[in-house]
Amino acid sequence: MKPSLEDERRALLEQIEASRALYRRMLTGEQPGGPQARMATGPGHRPVASGETPGRSQPVQWMMEHPLWVAGGVALLVLMAPRLLSAGKHAAQKRRANKRRERQWRERESPGTGRALLTAAVLLLRDPARLRMVSRIASTAWQWLQQRRRPPKTVTTVTPTARVTTRVH
Description:
The chain is mainly α. The protein has helices spanning 5-28, 58-65, 67-108, 111-124, 128-149, and strands at residues 153-158, 163-168.
């Protein structure tokens, strides 16, 4: 037969009171199993082992059981922290220097002329035929500049009467 609602209510209240008593004991530091210890059974309740400190999370309990590992980790952190901080500081100084150089470079260049040339180049070079024409002009100009840089070739012809030197371009 089904238990009545009143019986279920009483059972729930007893379970709540038992868990409150357990938490109260955990907060005051009493050992479980004392005169007023009443363990609730059910989901969410587990008995506390004899060596376990009640109310502590598993990571804290692990740290309490392994103090040498914790000390090693703290020592490693103390040794590595200055290096990590100095590396971060060095990187920040590098970023500031790069920004400063970039700002100086922008101040030196003329944005109006460069922007105008870039716009003209983009408008002219959209068409492949114009692109070929510009590349031919650039090639011809480059060859002309290279010829002007070279010393002129001299040709010496020897004749029986006189020596004649002419320049050939």
